[in-house]
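hey so i finally got around to running both of the ones u sent me last week. sorry it took forever, my laptop kept dying halfway thru and i had to restart like 3 times lol. anyway pasting them below in the order u listed, first the sequence line then the structure token line for each. didnt double check formatting much so if smth looks off just lmk and ill redo it

first one:
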Amino acid sequence: MSARPGYDASTWKLVRAFQAHVATPHDVDSANAVFALTDTLNGRVLEAEKPQPVIWYGEDEEFAALMIQAEAHETEDGGHMEVAGLLLPNGDTAVALMEDVEPVSDADPVWLSLLDAEADDDREDEDDDADWALAGMGDDDGDT
């Protein structure tokens, strides 16, 4: 179960973004932020429109998501990383490097098709769960 509600193409603008400050573990525990990087230096909030529809490029798959948090951090060895906190349509969250997300318009046909595919997958999962539950409700006449 997710701590956040999901969204669709008509409700995504109602999603609350996190952009007040660099997130702390308390912000994550209270479900206000997606991530808090405590082992980095010089964290700062990235100026970006939030929530922002994005396509998240995973290892072998693309996902419709909303960027609801964005921060830049330095590592102890002098590296630099930009990190996005993502909200998925079902309310789950994910963390991705900014190089793996592409900001898009809410009218982008790829984003909309990925959003629809996720909604279809969620409906199928709900149907499977209902079928499984109903299968266990057979007649029990007490004979064993």
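and the second one:
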Amino acid sequence: MDIAAQRLAAPESAGTGGVATVELEVGGMHCQSCAALIEETLVRDPGVHEAAVDLTAGRASVVYDPLAVSVDEVCAAVTSAGYTAVPLTSANPAS
């Protein structure tokens, strides 16, 4: 299965249930293992509901609870794994 098609669900967050989506430009990935590591790193945060990384496009789509985690914290998680991350878009929280 293509890694970009995989969606890894995080444990339910303690937030209010509102969600937002951010698209990240991710740098430093060289292989599918890199993409998988980034996904695993992101979904460890209880505020992240889903993460999908597209190695070919160099992008990650992250569904998160904006009351539990910020976009800066999402990017910092990617950076802590040894990659770079810059937000491309951010959607407003939905009820």
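quick thing i noticed on the 2nd:
The chain has two helices and five strands.
anyway thats it, ttyl
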